[in-house]
Amino acid sequence: MNTRERFNKVMHWQKPDRVPNMDFGYWEETIDVLHKQGLPENIKTDQEVEKYLGLEGIEIINRMPVKNQLYPGFEPKVLEDHGDYQIILDKERNTCKVLKNGSSMPQFIKYGLETKDDWKIHKERLDFTTEGRIGDIKKAVKEAHETGMPLKLSSASLYGWLRDWMGVENFSIAVMTEKEWVEEMMQHILQLTVGIIEKALPQAKGEVDAAFWWEDMCYNHGSLISPKLFEELMVPRYRIITQTMKKYGVDVNILDCDGKIYELVPSWIKGGINCMFPIEAAHTDPLKLRQDYGHDLLLVGGVNKVQLSKGRDSIDRELERLQPLVEEGGYIPCVDHRVPPDVSFVNYLYYLEKKKQILK
What we know:
This protein is of the alpha/beta class. Helix content is about 45%, strand content about 15%. Strands 1-6-7-10-11-12-13 form a seven-stranded parallel sheet, sandwiched between helices. A four-stranded antiparallel sheet has the order 2-3-4-5, with no helix packed on it.
């Protein structure tokens, strides 16, 4: 079997020859550290590291050539240069302080979407009819066959995009004081997404293996929006999108949300989103998710990255903890977020070797 066949078997509760050996990227500093510990200097990107180590994704799976966010993005500009950091205007019109070296989060000074006039500017770049949004679908399908790797569609983000454009605090105030405006924005994102699906997926002729969603809307104590508002504003729109995709054969919807996600999972399932990723182990236990939702929920991720830095015994215990999920099916283990620089190359290679033993 190739990776694509294995992936689809696991995602449909069938038995592959083995579970795909996937992982989920690296901090920029991690690759620099690994160079000093034995990784060849010419291996520089997440994709190159995965290929060098014989991994099968997540970063190297095929992507549908679809631009589904702000398009075209705003032109980034450097507003001020302060030596070790810059004040920039980013591609989403946010004013940020960013360090020149390293991959730390930017410090947001002003968000690009704070008023209804700002929304008019963003809305102009959220038109699904804009020429250039849909690339060569036939080529993408052909590459999926040639490489034997899954083909994914990047789907919508009803909360995550608005959070990025507005900031958590501004969004949280708006959803309580100007809910109709928030609904208008979510409805427009829904229309954008359905419009893209209806244009792109018929060309793929049932060859798309999964839709990937990004909704970073939880933190270490729970959801950043009340479950009641989530159920009211977002779940019906999720359902429209997932049902539209299902018409074209896409029945695996993988959602990327960090943090403690327990209180939102039932509603995601209700909305047709049936796989959680990357399942940050410090806040969400994949074993509990399986216990609570059984075969209603697929799982990808869940390997606690902190344990990888502690040495072989901790790595052994972590993989032994997750082995029953692998054996049951519907689960692909990978690091629960990008591998941090405190994980040594020796430990990481040991983890990959031990992981192979439970993927059989």
